[in-house]
Predict the structure.
Amino acid sequence: MKKNQCCPKCQSQNILYVPAKGVFRRNAYQDIVVDDRKLKVEQYICKKCGYVEAYVCDDDLKEMEEL
Ligand SMILES: [Zn+2]
């Protein structure tokens, strides 16, 4: 879904991308906090079936290596 912009559940290509630092307002609980480190999460939402995929954004993957 991240790479091919296609929903794995219904094969729709109508995907909404929600960046970790973006204009979309989100509930704070969608970021992941581990030992005071905050991992920002970006999401892909299928507009057809509502399926959501979430990824820790690339900048924060380095943080995870140290956990
Ligand atoms: Zn779908």
